[in-house]
Amino acid sequence: MTLLLDRVTFRYHRWSRPVLSHLTYEVPGRGLTILLGPNGAGKSTTMALLAGTAAPTAGKVLLTGSRLSSTSREYRRHVAWLPQKVPSSRQLTAREYVAYVAWLKGENRSDAWAGAGSALDQVGLGEQQGDKTARLSGGQLRRVGIACALAHDARVILLDEPTAGLDPHQRTVFRDVLREVTEKTPVLMSTHDIVDLADEADTVTLMDGGRVRHHGGTPSFLDHAHPEAAPARRAESAYSVLMGLGRAQ
Ligand SMILES: Nc1ncnc2c1ncn2[C@@H]1O[C@H](COP(=O)(O)OP(=O)(O)OP(=O)(O)O)[C@@H](O)[C@H]1O
After folding, report:
1. Sign of the Cα pseudo-torsion (87, 90, 95, 97, in order)
2. Could you write out the DSSP letters of every residue in 33-65?
3. Whose CA is nearest to atom 24 of ligand 1?
4. Would you tell me which of 107, 110, 112, 240 could form a disulfide with 248, CB atoms 3.0–4.6 Å apart?
5. 46 alpha carbon to ligand 1 midpoint, in Å?
6. How far apart are CA 13 and CA 187, in angstroms?
7. How many CB atoms neighbour CB 55 within 10 A?
8. pTM, two decimal places
9. How far, rounded to the nearest angstrom, does the alpha carbon of residue 136 sit from its chain's CA centroid?
10. Pairwise CA distance, residues 67 & 47, whole Å
11. How, if at all, do strands 20-26 and 3-10 pair?
12. CB 166 within 8 A of CB 174
């Protein structure tokens, strides 16, 4: 079961130019897919459509297999979304917050509470579960966001730039959590951290101007790198080559 944008057109305002035009894109049904692209490429818009928080102007967004549409409440139960800015509630503890989100997604109270505890353990925040979310660091808050996804047993997880602004330690912790999560649940993650993440990803999707410019397994993405690119720079080089940017080595 995965998510499909089926010939989707989207505009933010009635008379504005469409950000996406007749875009068909299927999120891979396993592992980690990273969504790359320059600022304004349409990554967050695509994520919001897949999350069901924005509705297409034309076309459909579906959960394949079930054919559930993103406009249905049932669809959103199966999809977890971590937006760029993780919302927090100053009054709630980490566990209360995760349990509340799981309850909103349809879990009953006791399952939501139990699920919140184990999800916070899984992301390494077991000891902070009683802390108010307002006291957590940006990296910890992002892990709380992932715990929300885990606590309600989503079929697909969408993460919008989850590593932006994390320090190197938080980044490592986050990657370890991600590795574990993707063993069970497919994750689509937008990021500008190509160097960090190309090694981790199973699939790379590159967007530009609202279109998918490249989509395929990570080795096929890296094959585009300049032949003389240093091993540590191959991902950056492949990105530059595919985007038609100047220096590719
Ligand atoms: N709320 C909005 N109202 C109008 N236009 C918007 C809105 N949000 C995004 N856009 C426009 O839609 C286009 C795609 O933006 P989007 O945020 O999806 O790109 P992105 O690839 O996520 O960029 P970034 O890497 O900067 O986050 C851009 O031209 C942007 O200006």
Report:
1. negative
2. EEEE--TTSSHHHHHHHHHTSS--SEEEEEETT
3. 39
4. 240
5. 10
6. 29
7. 13
8. 0.90
9. 21
10. 18
11. antiparallel
12. yes
The domain locations on the chain are 3-243
Type of residue at 156:
V
Is 56:19 a contact under the CB 8 Å cutoff?
no
Ligand 1 touching residue 170 (CB < 6 A) = no
- Residues 99, 91: Cα–Cα separation, whole Å: 14
Distance 20 CA to ligand 1 centre (A): 11
Domain 3-243 sits in CATH 2.120.10.30: no
- What is the rounded average pLDDT for all residues in the chain? 89
Asked whether this complex has an ipTM greater than 0.90, the answer is yes
pLDDT tens column, 17-46: 999 999 999 999 999 999 999 999 999 999
Using CB atoms within 10 A of its CB, is residue 67 exposed (0-12), middle (13-18) or buried (19+)? exposed
Using a 6 Å cutoff on CB, does residue 37 contact ligand 1?
A: yes
